[in-house]
Amino acid sequence: MTSTALAGRRCRTNKWVESPQGRIAAMSEGKIRYVCENLGRLLVRVDWDRGGSAMLFPEEIELFDVA
User: Fold this and answer.
1) Which of 7, 29, 44, 59 has a C-alpha 20 to 30 A away from that of 51?
2) pLDDT value for 41
3) What distance in Å separates the CA atoms of residue 16 and residue 36, rounded to the nearest whole number?
């Protein structure tokens, strides 16, 4: 299952996150590209403002609205 319902929503990491591309700092900001399910777990693809992208678990990010 892949969903684009949250595509374009702003988010940020709520802690340091280890990813295959390296460590992602807490409070790093980006936009959600899509949400998918793999092996019964939800994963969120995030395109970072600083460049690159990563797959994260929903509990590693928080959504926010730009004022």
Assistant:
1) 59
2) 94
3) 22
